[in-house]
Amino acid sequence: MSMFYVLTNPLTLWPDAYGCEPTIERPDVKHSTLGWVLLVSGLFFVMLYIPCFIAIIQKKSSAPVYQLMFVLAIFDILSLSINSICTGIFDILGVSFCQYPLLIYFLGATAGGSWMSGCLTCVLLAIERCVEINPQFPLEFLFRKYFFTGVRILMVMWTVYVFGFVKPVLFSIEYSCWFFDPMIGKDPLLYHSYPHTINNFAVGISTTALYLYISYRLIFKFGYSTSMWLYKTKRQILFQAITLCIFHTAAAFIYEYMQFIEVTPKIIIASQFIWQWSNGAVCIAYLVFNRTIRNLVLKMFIPKSIRKHYGLYIGFDEHLAAEEAGTISGNVPVMNAAGVKIKYDNFMC
């Protein structure tokens, strides 16, 4: 059963799989400490991500990479709202599936859809990064102007499918985690999601392969450079690639592992935080490694009048304009000014 069934049957869950019997024993469980940790950390990530999301919008770039970053931000914020904020609230209050089945079903469909849609976007971003590193990359044609329109259409179709026609994950207060099985005493085989399994293995394998390719190109094909700026650029690209790859791959594989093999509660809790970080690490990577996003965020929080008063020029454009106006010399502090521009827009910029 999927969201399509619920929406076409007056907001009613399929009773054979999701109906809670009146005699079912509802767990009297709360995870207050864990709930507060998830809630606070989730709010922290969302508060970091929203300025990055606004910066991506302000960029007003038609480049495929920014369109993908825009879409990924939406899915990541949706995921964080559920896998961290809602999960934290449910843990604190001790909410179980049978108390609010329809609400948890909707949230689970949104979480699962956001994860699977975000996975496709992450794979496309990884391919785009390979194209940035190597313009002769075999899948370069995906990002040509007219072909990318078709890619966007396929992304919309995939999003509709995973939100509307794939079984959702459901919150379990016993384990403080989201599973397909609501654990209400019915056959677990009713709930297995094959599209989700295929998606997780595909994203785990493909992103690992693509980021290994990026690392190989940067380390061995570009070779050694005496340029400190280029060295730092390559190092930061590698750190960003490794950060994003580790959490997405780990989240994909560990959730599939839990579907088939019984695991300890510690692994289940760890999987919840890995899922959280697979979304939250993206905004951290933007703020640490992406100069364009970081500079736009700094400009949001530091008014131009204050920057001008203290001689803080954020970005190469402000620094260059100030130099041309004769208002600064080389000894005045500059924030993130870069003297060289290379086509690593989605990494550094």
From TrEMBL:
Q: Which InterPro entries match?
A: 7TM_GPCR_serpentine_rcpt_Srt (IPR019425)
Q: Which domain of life is it from?
A: Eukaryota
Keywords, alphabetical: Membrane, Transmembrane, Transmembrane helix
Per its UniProt record, what Pfam families does this chain match?
Answer: 7TM_GPCR_Srt (PF10321)
Q: Where are the membrane-spanning stretches?
A: 35-56, 68-90, 102-126, 146-166, 198-216, 237-255, 267-289
Which PANTHER family would you find in this protein's record? G_PROTEIN_RECEP_F1_2 DOMAIN-CONTAINING PROTEIN-RELATED, SERPENTINE RECEPTOR, CLASS T
Q: What is the name of this protein? A: Serpentine Receptor, class T
